[in-house]
Specification:
- By secondary structure, this protein is of the alpha/beta class.
- The protein is 39% helix and 25% strand.
- The chain is built from five helices and six strands.
- The protein has a six-stranded mixed sheet, with helices on both faces.
Length: 149
């Protein structure tokens, strides 16, 4: 399994490996936004010097095991994390809101694969009428909420 890494990170945090699962969404119109959010979360973690599982490798493994995005239970997520040799899973979902509303509320959790414990949780709302600025502002908030390595 291939990991994106940084040599400083390997010396300081040699055992932490993050897998970012696809964002869970209910409506197909939210797929593009979900993909952007997942990519931005990956960028935040890599820039914070965390080791992150390469997305293409993780997608191959999830397809290989025919795991449906919305069909994963918490136990399935933990088992997937173990199969990926990850120590941490990043779980993101769009919370159900009124579809007429132009805002999407997201929840991001960092789950310890070994214990199943939520290590941190970050929630934010984006404005679909000003998507780019709204997502960037949310990711700045995520950056500052994650402790510096």
């Amino acid at each position: 399994i291939l990991f994106v890494s940084n040599s400083k990170n390997e010396k300081r945090y040699p055992k932490e490996r993050y897998a970012i699962l696809p964002v869970i969404y209910s409506h197909s119109k939210d797929k593009k936004t979900s993909d952007v959010i997942r990519d931005k979360i990956e960028t935040v973690l890599v820039n914070k010097k965390y080791t992150v599982l390469e997305r293409t490798k993780m997608n191959e493994i999830t397809k290989e095991f025919k795991l449906a995005q919305t069909g994963l239970t918490r136990n399935d997520q933990i088992e997937l994390g173990k199969m990926l040799n990850a120590t941490n899973l990043i779980l993101t979902e769009i919370l159900e809101l009124n579809q007429d509303d132009k805002h999407l509320e997201f929840s991001i959790k960092n789950l310890d694969v070994e214990s199943g414990q939520i290590l941190w949780k970050y929630e934010f709302t984006i404005d679909e009428t000003n998507l780019s600025e709204s997502i960037n502002k949310a990711m700045e908030g995520l950056k500052s909420s994650i402790e510096n390595p």
